[in-house]
Amino acid sequence: MKAIRYTDYQTFPVLVDVDKPVAGPGEVVLKVGASGACHSDVAVFNDFVEGTNPLCAPAFTLGHEVAGWADEIGEGVNGIERGAAYVVYGPVGCGHCRFCLVGQDTYCEHADEVGYLGIGLGRDGGMAEYVVVPARNLVPLGEADPVQASALADAGLTPYHAIKLALPKLNKAGSAALVIGLGGLGLLAVQILKAMTSATVIATDTKESALRQVEKYGATTVPSGDGQVDAIRDLTGGRGVNAVFDMVGVGPTVQTAMASVATQGRVSVVGLGSAGSDYGWQWYKEPYEAELVKTYWGTLPELRELVALLQQGHLEPQYTTYPLAQGLEAYQQLLDGQVSGRAIIVP
């Protein structure tokens, strides 16, 4: 079968022929219906050097946003129906530590023993015709479209996790939320906020097209640039927003977030930028008791909740599809910043 593989540090991936995987005990081979190309993949093959993260050392097949149909069911697997559609929970932990027991494999205490971070992150992923995954990591889709659902595995789950943690800040009358950066994660973040809260949702981006698109989902938009923070504060009567979700994660966006947040508000840095390298906390200028946190991916139960939102019609992921033969082109466009929404590879 064909697969897009990461073969060496700071080396562009290649499309090659590999053997079809076989399901071991407790595993399922999934016929891939769709696999999302993510900026995390670009960071792995473009930025990582030896020692950056040994759990993502080459070589392996990329793709950690995967959905498809059960094709082969391994020994000891119950509750999985051959031919049924599933979305994959990408993180893979030890399965028995205090985090894995509640489906939060992202923070597995024995990741070094596992030897990889997850599907498509150190272990062969879904940028292929077939992928083998632990049966535990499959979330049933019912009648939901696997192409739409694949985007939920990271682009949806990551903002959902951050938003769910911030709900105490938003579940009050007159609350407001700010989403910075309207790529694949930001567009879904706005939809999730509208589905789960009554907060006024404000969104900001450098691209006019992204602002117009997110207005369709009920967001009030503010363009980046001069007067950005003043405009955001004006929309909240000068108080600032109760929760900020920074989908970019670089110094200037974190500065915008902290300048826009209200007293006792919460800033969640979700994007994988370089915030730590050029943002300095100025304790005497920041709002009192404002929280600045970073979040990572989400939990298995949260992915099930997110699929329910899709099934109920609350989410409309934005994406462009590519056949597997053009998957490398999709990664190049992602690297060049030319992808709007999510790039989805459809074998």
From TrEMBL:
<dbReference type="GO" id="GO:0004022">
    <property type="term" value="F:alcohol dehydrogenase (NAD+) activity"/>
</dbReference>
<dbReference type="GO" id="GO:0008270">
    <property type="term" value="F:zinc ion binding"/>
</dbReference>
<keyword id="KW-0479">Metal-binding</keyword>
<dbReference type="InterPro" id="IPR036291">
    <property type="entry name" value="NAD(P)-bd_dom_sf"/>
</dbReference>
<feature type="domain" description="Enoyl reductase (ER)">
    <location>
        <begin position="10"/>
        <end position="345"/>
    </location>
</feature>
<dbReference type="InterPro" id="IPR050129">
    <property type="entry name" value="Zn_alcohol_dh"/>
</dbReference>
<dbReference type="InterPro" id="IPR020843">
    <property type="entry name" value="ER"/>
</dbReference>
<keyword id="KW-0862">Zinc</keyword>
<dbReference type="InterPro" id="IPR013149">
    <property type="entry name" value="ADH-like_C"/>
</dbReference>
<dbReference type="InterPro" id="IPR013154">
    <property type="entry name" value="ADH-like_N"/>
</dbReference>
<keyword id="KW-0560">Oxidoreductase</keyword>
<dbReference type="Pfam" id="PF08240">
    <property type="entry name" value="ADH_N"/>
</dbReference>
<dbReference type="InterPro" id="IPR011032">
    <property type="entry name" value="GroES-like_sf"/>
</dbReference>
<dbReference type="Pfam" id="PF00107">
    <property type="entry name" value="ADH_zinc_N"/>
</dbReference>
<protein>
    <submittedName>
        <fullName>Alcohol dehydrogenase catalytic domain-containing protein</fullName>
        <ecNumber>1.1.1.1</ecNumber>
    </submittedName>
</protein>
<comment type="similarity">
    <text>Belongs to the zinc-containing alcohol dehydrogenase family.</text>
</comment>
<dbReference type="InterPro" id="IPR002328">
    <property type="entry name" value="ADH_Zn_CS"/>
</dbReference>
